[in-house]
From TrEMBL:
Top-rank taxon, per record: Bacteria
Membrane topology value: Multi-pass membrane protein
UniProt protein name: DMT family transporter
Primary location: membrane
Family statement: Belongs to the drug/metabolite transporter (DMT) superfamily. 10 TMS drug/metabolite exporter (DME) (TC 2.A.7.3) family.
Transmembrane segments: 7-24, 36-57, 69-90, 96-117, 124-140, 152-173, 185-207, 213-234, 241-261, 267-284
Record carries keyword Chaperone: no
Amino acid sequence: MSARTSPVIAFGAAALGIAIYSVMDTLMKRLSIDSGAYSAVLWRSWVGVAMTGALFLGRGGRWPGREALTLHVARGATGGASVVLFFWGLARVPMAQSIALTFLAPLIALFLAAFALGETIRRAAIYGSLVAGAGVLVIASGEVQAQASTQVVLGSLAILVASILYAVSLVLLRRQAQVAGPAEVALFTMLVIAVLMTPAAPFVSGWPAVQQWLSIVIAAALGSLSALLLAWAYARAEAQILAPVEYTAFVWAACLGYAVFGEHVSPFTLVGAALIIGGCVVAVRQPAPGPQSEAGL
């Protein structure tokens, strides 16, 4: 951690990164409503490839080796499916509720890492998953009470599946980071998404309207800027200091959803989000040192 950068500044940079990403989500929701999630993700990905490609080549980047390329393809495929499902669901579900459901991803990643990477599952992770699962049930019961439409229910299910796929991509990212730098990871993840989605574009995606291109370019730029801010922050402060900043996304989603789309946050969503966040906090906390530390299961 840089001696010249205080944790407060790093936390502020991370918080700004989350706020910028939330604005990008708002733009992508509008694009998904207007032209479909597939089209929005496809064209944002190609614009993102141009932006990150310029950065990668400008820094002397080279074509990755076989191991890194295999990981890029695997993460791009899972990440692409996750992003399309998320924005498809986001077009049908209030933003605050959507973001609350995505908070499950880090929790799912704990269990996937245990399976794929041999990491130990601690009791805290199990207890946390039970609390977070209760939060999902509360949000679902809110949909039942509100007699949510089929589209809202399907959108919520799509976001839950997207969270599982995103958790898989998080596990792959841990392996990616060991063989490739941030610029390469960002470029090839978007490149794989764009390349895999393009063949089906003539059947499920049209050419964006002229007035949509500005939103697409801004969304790609905001996504890249957010990633850079978060990378800068995590290089200068411990993860345990910065982890809580992820949950500020719920506040931004609630505010932007209300301001832009007139969405109201139900009490069920508030309680469910609190349970999911609480479960994640319990799951990722580190055991206290010493003889009383809990043993892994």
